């Protein structure tokens, strides 16, 4: 069955392939397009290199990275699911059309109308040879179209459903801004200097925001990840994801409850009696010497 088009979910593709370079992107796209039109890929490196428009050396370098998207025997589970869904839908429409046509043409009045049309055509064929060429009648609506109502679809097919309007961009400005902040934390350039692994950073960040991850948590995880890194900038924004997930798990833990214990109550001063005793002794001694000084003893 001919398949002139294939579904390609841009956000999912960019998120899954953000680590690919340009050559690997081209090879992977050509392979999945061949897979879609033929139903599979050959398990032969020479043929795969030809499909990917690569030399043997180029394919040898890209093979391990591209092969990670496929199962054993170069099977692709997601494309297989999409193919099965499309084939099932096409079969349903074909069967519905066949039944509608069979039902329409099996009616007696339809057969009678066909026979009458053939008879009338034979009777008026000779008279129509000398008739002047008919001229088009002016349209009542003035727009050049035919104002007569159209007959319903003889195959009974449903009216086509208009495609839903697509947003101008699936990536929010918040995701773009946060991706730029993460690139600055990682120490990578912007624009033409951006490493290949960072080209789809905004798509991955949009996925995080869709999960409910906040900007503050993402930045905390990214800074903690870079504080432990000693071998240069990461190859892509996905490097930060484990640290961000750990930060989210840490913040989700309940705060331990602190129970305030009552302070010990001291009943009286344990040294009070001794201090009091010493005070009384000094007073008595002072009185004794005062009495002797005055001649009293």
UniProtKB/TrEMBL annotation:
Ranges annotated as biased composition (Pro residues)? 155-165
The protein's matches in InterPro entries, at most eight in alphabetical order, are given as: DUF1376 (IPR010781)
Q: Where is the composition biased (Basic and acidic residues)?
A: 116-125, 136-154
- Which residue ranges does the record annotate as region Disordered? 99-167
**Name of the featured protein:** DUF1376 domain-containing protein
């Amino acid at each position: 069955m001919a398949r002139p088009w294939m579904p390609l979910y841009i956000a999912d593709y960019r998120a899954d392939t953000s680590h690919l370079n340009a050559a690997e992107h081209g090879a992977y796209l050509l392979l999945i397009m061949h897979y879609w039109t033929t139903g599979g890929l050959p398990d032969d490196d020479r043929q795969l290199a030809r499909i990917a428009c690569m030399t043997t050396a180029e394919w040898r370098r890209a093979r391990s990275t591209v092969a990670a998207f496929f199962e054993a025997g170069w099977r692709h589970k997601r494309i297989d699911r999409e193919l099965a869904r499309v084939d099932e839908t096409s079969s349903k429409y074909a069967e519905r059309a066949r039944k509608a046509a069979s039902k329409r043409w099996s009616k007696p009045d339809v057969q009678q109308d066909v026979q009458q049309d053939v008879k009338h055509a034979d009777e008026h064929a000779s008279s129509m040879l000398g008739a002047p060429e008919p001229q088009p009648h002016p349209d009542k609506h003035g727009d050049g179209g035919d104002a007569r109502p159209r007959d319903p679809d003889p195959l009974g097919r449903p009216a086509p459903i208009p495609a839903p309007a697509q947003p101008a961009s699936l990536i929010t400005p918040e995701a773009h801004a946060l991706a730029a902040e993460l690139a600055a934390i990682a120490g990578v350039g912007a624009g033409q200097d951006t490493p290949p692994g960072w080209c789809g950073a905004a798509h991955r960040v949009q996925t995080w925001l869709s999960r409910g991850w906040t900007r503050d948590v993402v930045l905390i995880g990214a800074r903690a990840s870079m504080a432990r890194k000693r071998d240069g900038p990461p190859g892509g924004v996905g490097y930060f994801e484990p640290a961000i997930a750990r930060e989210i798990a840490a913040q989700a833990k309940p705060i331990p409850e602190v129970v305030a214990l009552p302070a010990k109550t001291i009943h009286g001063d344990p040294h009070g009696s001794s201090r009091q005793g010493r005070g009384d002794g000094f007073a008595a001694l002072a009185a004794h010497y005062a009495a002797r000084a005055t001649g009293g003893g």
